[in-house]
Amino acid sequence: MRSVLDLTLAELFKTKRPSLGNNIPVGLYRIVKHVAFERALGKMSDKAAFDAGVLIGRGLGAKNANELIGMLEELKVGKINVAEQTEKRIVIRVLECISCSGLPKIGKMPCFFEGGIIGGALESILKRKTEVKQTKSIGGFGDPYCEFVVTFRK
Ligand SMILES: [Zn+2]
Q: Residue 90: CB partners within 8 Å, gap ≥ 6?
């Protein structure tokens, strides 16, 4: 018997739901992420969500930024815009964010999962270590989009 922790991304994404399909209401995802994680892990829930995102980002297999954007939109993480791209950093905006769009303002950045996916995927694509900081949030602070500044470390 295998632990769920040993399952691959491909195995986790595989479903057998011929009549219901792969889509679920966003609210179900948010309950697991915001409520279950927070209750079980407290302050560590942000790190757990970020680490899960990194795992997914690295495992997506995107070969370039355009492919990554397509994958994130296909996964319905949000609508993705690259606002700035230099040698040192990339600024990515997420509209209709899966974690927070439509939530009342909660006064904190809630989108560690998305930041992890973006950072992990860019590390994998560019073969450079990243540091991700969320600077805007729809649900956290009422911003028009969630924004992630990805800085490249040496
Ligand atoms: Zn968000």
A: 65, 82, 84, 122, 149, 150
Q: CATH number of the domain that 33 lies in?
A: 3.30.1380.20
* Residues that place a CB less than 5 A from ion ligand 1: 97, 99-100, 111, 146
CA 98–ligand 1 middle distance (angstroms): 6
Query: How many domains does the chain fold into?
Result: 1
Q: pLDDT tens digits for the chain (154 residues)?
A: 889 889 988 898 899 999 999 999 999 999 999 899 899 999 899 999 999 999 999 999 999 999 999 999 999 999 999 999 999 999 999 999 999 999 999 999 999 999 999 999 999 999 999 999 999 999 999 999 999 999 998 6
CB 117 within 8 A of CB 56: yes
Structural domain that includes position 127: 4-152
